[in-house]
C-alpha cells in the first residue's frame, strides 16, 4: 500500500476494524450522492462480520482501502490532518476465460470536498497494483448510467464501457423464492 513519503501526498491503507464507523459513514455519503439512502442496510455489526481486515485477512468477503488527505479542504480548515478523503471497497472475482483472479470494485467514493485532487485515480492505481499482486488480469466495476462525471473520469483513465453486457441481480423476495428447494426454504 502507498504510504506518504512527502507531507503533501495522500496516504492509502487497508481499513482496520477500528475504521468500520468511518466506512459506514462513507457508505451513507455515497448513498446520498446516488440518491439511494433508503437502500443502505449496512450496520457497523454487519460490516464487522463481512469485511476482511489485515488482522484476519482470511475472514470476510471484501476489503476496503482508505485514502487520507494530507491537508483538510479549504472549506474545513479547522479540521486536523490527515482526514479520510475516500475509499475503495472491493472483492476478488474470477475470469474463467483467462483462468485468472481479478478484482471487482464495489464502491469508489471520494468526498465532494476532496474531488479534483487525483484521489479517485490514486485509489484506482492502488487497486490496479493489488490486482497485479494477486496475479489478476482484470479490474472491473459498474457505474450508474446517469453518473456522467464518473463515466468521463473512468474513460479518461483507460476504462472501457462494456455495452454488450447487461447487469443482472436477484435479491430480497426473489432470492428467497429462488433459494427454495422442493417448496422449502433452505
Question: Alpha-carbon distance between the termini?
Answer: 41 Å
The stretches of 5 or more residues where confidence is low (pLDDT under 50) are none
Q: What percent of residues are in strands?
A: 15-25%
How would a crystallographer describe the biggest sheet? 5 strands, mixed
Number of helices: 5
Question: Any idea what the shape is?
Answer: globular
Structural class: alpha+beta
Spatially, the strands of the biggest sheet line up as: 1-2-3-4-5
Q: What's the overall average pLDDT, rounded?
A: 91
The count of DSSP E runs of length 2 or more, i.e. the number of strands, is 5
What pattern of helices and strands is seen along the backbone? EHHEEEHEHH
What does this structure look like?
The protein is of the alpha+beta class and 186 residues long. It contains 5 helices and 5 strands. It has helices at 20-33, 44-50, 119-133, 148-156, 172-179, and strands at residues 11-14, 63-69, 83-95, 100-110, 138-141. It has a 5-stranded mixed β-sheet with strand order 1-2-3-4-5, with helices on both faces.
Task: List strands and helices in order, with pairings.
Blueprint: E1 11-14, H1 20-33, H2 44-50, E2 63-69, E3 83-95, E4 100-110, H3 119-133, E5 138-141, H4 148-156, H5 172-179
Parallel strand pairs: 4-5
Antiparallel strand pairs: 1-2, 2-3, 3-4
